[in-house]
Amino acid sequence: MDTPVPAMPIAVGARLPSVALKRLGPDGMETLDTAALFAAGTSVLFGVPGAFTPTCSGRHLPGFIEQAAALRARGVARIACLSVNDPFVMAAWADAQGAGAAVEMLPDGNGDFTRVLGLEKDARGAGLGLRCKRFAMIVEDGVVRHIAVDESGLDATSAEKVLAAL
User: Fold this and answer.
1) 56-92 pLDDT per residue, tens
2) Which of 24, 122, 132, 142 is the most buried (most CB within 10 A)?
3) Ramachandran area for residue 28 (φ above 0: left; ψ -120 to 50: alpha; else beta)
């Protein structure tokens, strides 16, 4: 699972790389392989700069929770939220937001998956360290079919924009 860091962000037509992520599951810590997780069917993967941050908690994640049924009606089997936060923070954020089964939380504690996607954001100036850019992608059978990145704010990566791209 040692994937080289790309020179540019992942693009349409690229296969999602295999990276191990740790998540707090019902029976404790579990390891997920990103390539296996998105290998079959249609998935939506969106990334946020940080759990419990204003736009992420106020609009981005809630939008996907609210639109989960509409996304599933369009054939989306998995909706996943990625953030460079540890598994405990992501579990607490999921509970606080009522994500339940609507959105699967993917902690990228070390930023490894974010880095190989080429979607790392340097937020050290704000005291937040290295984070994930705000993005949304549609993945079909492990291959990126649509990707949008918001450099600031929330526009191209909203649940409504993803729904329109399906």
Assistant:
1) 888 999 999 999 999 999 999 999 999 999 999 999 9
2) 132
3) left
Closest of 24, 32, 15 to residue 93, by C-alpha: 24
Cα 166–chain centre separation: 17
Catalytic residue chosen out of the listed positions 32, 56, 68, 76: 56
Task: Domain 38-165: give its CATH code.
Answer: 3.40.30.10
Query: Residues near 99 by Cβ (< 8 Å), separated by ≥ 6?
Result: 61, 65, 81, 93, 105
- Sorted by sequence, the CB contacts under 8 Å of residue 115 that are 6+ apart come out as 5
Model pLDDT, residue 54? 81
Query: What's phi and psi for 105, nearest 5 deg?
Result: -95, 130
> For residue 109, which of 136, 79, 88 has the smallest C-alpha distance?
88
pLDDT tens track for 8-52: 799 999 999 999 999 998 899 999 999 999 999 999 999 999 899
Q: Domain-by-domain residue ranges, the chain?
A: 38-165
| Other Cβ atoms closer than 10 A to 13 | 8
